[in-house]
């Protein structure tokens, strides 16, 4: 879960996740949405993959990225548990 929090801490990675929420996209389609180099976007995508926040699938010469919602569910569950324990401790 630490990798997920680290990945979510960056605004570029959060924007990538927001884009993928709407549609599965190729790396090139994601890169087109940013004013940065493709290697920089690749680095962000790799960190998101390491955190299991995105999945990737090779289709021909393209890599298609999609959200991995199960990790988001884990993060939300952690937050809800944290808030519940915090409220109970008051």
What can you tell me about this protein's structure?
With 90 residues, the protein is of the alpha+beta class. The chain is 63% helix and 16% strand. The protein is built from five helices and three strands. The protein has a three-stranded antiparallel β-sheet. Strand 2 (54-59) and strand 3 form a beta hairpin. Helix 1 packs antiparallel against helix 4. It is elongated and about 45 Å long. The mean pLDDT is 90.
Concise structural overview:
With 90 residues, the protein is of the alpha+beta class. It is 63% helix and 16% strand. A three-stranded antiparallel sheet has the order 1-3-2.
List the helices and strands and how they pair.
Elements: H1 2-8, H2 11-22, E1 25-26, H3 27-31, H4 38-50, E2 54-59, E3 62-67, H5 69-88
Antiparallel strand pairs: 1-3, 2-3
Helix pairs in contact: 1-4
Uncertain spans: none
Number of strands: 3
Query: Biggest β-sheet: count, sense, barrel?
Result: 3 strands, antiparallel
The backbone outline, from C-alpha atoms, is elongated
Proportion of residues in β-strands: 15-25%
Radius of gyration, Cα only, in angstroms? 15 Å
- Gap between N and C termini, in Å? 26 Å
Mean pLDDT: 90
Bin the helical content: 55-70%
The class by helix and strand makeup works out as alpha+beta
Count the helices. How many? 5
Strand order of the largest sheet: 1-3-2
| Order of SSEs | HHEHHEEH
């Amino acid at each position: 879960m630490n990798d997920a929090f680290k990945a979510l801490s960056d605004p570029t990675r959060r924007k990538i996740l927001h884009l993928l929420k709407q549609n599965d996209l190729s790396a090139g389609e994601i890169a087109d949405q940013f004013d940065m180099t493709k290697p920089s976007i690749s680095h962000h995508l790799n960190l998101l993959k390491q955190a299991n926040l995105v999945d990737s699938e090779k289709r021909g010469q393209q890599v298609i990225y999609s959200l991995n919602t199960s990790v988001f569910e884990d993060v939300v569950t952690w937050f809800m548990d944290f808030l519940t324990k915090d409220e109970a401790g008051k």
